[in-house]
Amino acid sequence: MDNQHTKQLSIPFRIALVAISAALIVAFFPKRTSVSYDYNEGKPWKYGQIIAEYDFPIYKSDHTIKAETDSVLRSFQPYFKYEGSIGNMQIRNFEQDVARGTLGNIPANYRSYLLQKLSEVYEAGIMDSHDFSTVMDSGYKSVRIVEGTKATSMAIKNIFTIRSAYVYINSFADSANISKEVLSRCNINDYLAENLSYDERKTLSEKKELIRSITYSSGMVVGGQKIIDRGEIVDANTANIIASMIKESELRNSNKSIWLQLGGKFLVVILLLSVFLIYLRLYRKDYLEDIRSVSLLYFLLVAFPIITSLISQNSIQYIYCIPMAAIAIFITVFMDSRTAFLSTLIAIVLSSLALQEPYLFVITQIFSSLVAIYSLKQLESRSQLFQTAFLVTALTIVIMLGYEFGQGHTIEMLDTSWYISETINGVLLLFVYPFMFLMEKVFGFTSPITLIEISNVNHPLLRELSKQAQGTFNHSMQVANLASEVAAKVGADVLLVRTGALYHDIGKIKNATYFTENQTSTNLHDNLPEERSAQIIIQHIADGLELAEKYHLPRVIKEFIMTHHGLSMASYFYIQYKNKHPEENVNEQLFTYPGPNPYTKEQAILMIADSVEAASRSMKTIDDDSIRELVKKTVDSKMQSGLLKDCPVTFADVEEAKEVLVASLKTIYHTRISYPTLNSEKAENQKKKKNNHIFRRKSR
């Protein structure tokens, strides 16, 4: 019986889903073309033996090269061009202005003094103030001054700016018996100009040449030479050789190799995602046809490999902080454990493609996911998540210890940072609980925790039901018990069925007295036409959905409200109407529930349990045969009317449901023995005898 109420996902959509997911995963893979290792100096080498495949230089470390570069650059001097013509022109301008009298009557000794000082500052050189500050801030003590083909070194402290040149000229005025007041009329600033300009091309060229003189290698490794073997301690020299080997490998490989690598990984990713799609097509078609389920599954399959790729580019060790078991938890809680295991396994393999030597990562994550699935097969309390986080952390630490001891490491050689990462992993698993709530809102799922919370009879809506419609409340409790027993027998979701049963009739709150279970003496339908009575009864579906929306009940509970009568008819009023109007063509829509028919196993169970419990209340004779006949007649009528044709239930499920319902109703309606009454005369005699006996004991 196939589910016809989920939207079929087209084949092009499935192909696009796999292709886009694969493209996203591969796009975040590290763009490297060489093998990478995770190791620490002073710790044992945990990989296999490494033999040099070809000759390569032993590159100096970045720290060493930086130190040598800094040492060389400390003696470097930036280059400045000396423009002698600028000073000559400014001095000539001064002489011309003095001769023309532009500066007024300047005494001869003032003229001689200014010509001397102007010659001195131009000979030393005047630099732009910004260039001067840059040179000083860069820590240079001297600069190279280029005049023609000649370059001479000059201490920066002996070079002027326009401002310092002006101050310098004025500073000797007193010693030369020069009046500063007269000197100020000479407008010295008008004859000061920069004659040193920064030679960027020459400076950069000389700096590159100087840096080029630094050697970047400190030796050679010959092809075939052993570099390190498993278990050997990684010293500073070996670490430098390994880093040099990786660097040389990257230099030898071209961009073409990078694209070939990514292309190969893309094919592998496509294959893995397609395998998962095939699994859904063969074994969980209901998930494949549900956009919510597919979205959640592929979101998790894409998100965790991307996170692994991003983290692995900083440190391989940090990938053990990633709580891969969260995938198993989410899918186990919202779907099933078999799908959870396969999806987690594929996510782990996809993540491992971003790593080198990933087998330890794969082993630890697979086992931790298995523990998560096993411990949360039936989530019933928040404490289970804490237990799961503890078990996952403990197991991964044990696996890590076994791995290190298996490599010949001693306790002193253990790398504590690995165990810190695994502990962080366990702590992050605790955040699954708040994220579970987010998943519910985003993807429309309902977790067992939510079902437990709303199935509490102290929920405001259930309290309102017990207050306004006590009979309906009792009926709902009875149906919940019956449906739970059936669900447990046929392998359905017991908690979901029970919760749906508690809320399936909440719409009766609005017109409680129109339903027989809430009536005491008078029947309000006696004075109403049958079609009106039928509409009032049918209205409890719409009223129930309205209340469910008001109290923010999950969508899955609303589906129980809609489907517990399916497209059946309010048969009591329909038959009454037909009997009163035998010749009339009846509009059956007036007596038909809006539906739809049940389309899950749990909804079918509720419909059956609801009908059987309601019918059992009208039984006149209660014995084994009458109960069995009632159950058979009620269930078979649902089957024959086609109300269960859209449900994924088998005939074996239906027969098992019948047996459970019969057994449960026998327990509910079992015959109770009558308690005997004590004969009054006999009781009086026994009382007298007892009093006489007590009196004789006291008189002794």
Please specify the SSE layout and strand pairing.
Blueprint: H1 11-27, E1 50-51, E2 56-59, H2 62-74, E3 79-82, H3 84-100, H4 108-124, H5 129-137, E4 142-147, E5 150-155, H6 162-171, H7 180-184, E6 196-198, H8 200-212, E7 217-221, E8 226-228, H9 236-252, H10 255-283, H11 285-288, H12 291-312, H13 325-334, H14 337-352, H15 359-375, H16 383-406, H17 416-429, H18 432-443, H19 448-454, H20 460-468, H21 470-490, H22 494-503, H23 530-550, H24 555-563, H25 571-580, H26 601-616, H27 624-640, H28 651-668, H29 680-699
Parallel strand pairs: 3-4
Antiparallel strand pairs: 1-8, 2-7, 3-6, 4-5
Helix pairs in contact: 1-10, 1-12, 3-4, 10-14, 12-14, 13-14, 13-15, 14-15, 15-16, 16-17, 20-21, 21-22, 21-26, 21-28, 22-24, 22-26, 23-24, 23-25, 26-27, 27-28
Note down, in words, how this protein is organized.
The radius of gyration is 46 Å and the shape is elongated. The protein is mainly alpha-helical. The strands form three sheets. It has a four-stranded mixed beta sheet. The chain has helices spanning 11-27, 62-74, 84-100, 108-124, 129-137, 162-171, 180-184, 200-212, 236-252, 255-283, 285-288, 291-312, 325-334, 337-352, 359-375, 383-406, 416-429, 432-443, 448-454, 460-468, 470-490, 494-503, 530-550, 555-563, 571-580, 601-616, 624-640, 651-668, 680-699, and strands at 50-51, 56-59, 79-82, 142-147, 150-155, 196-198, 217-221, 226-228. α21 runs antiparallel to α22 (494-503) and α26 (601-616) crosses α27. Helices cover 61% and strands 5% of the residues.
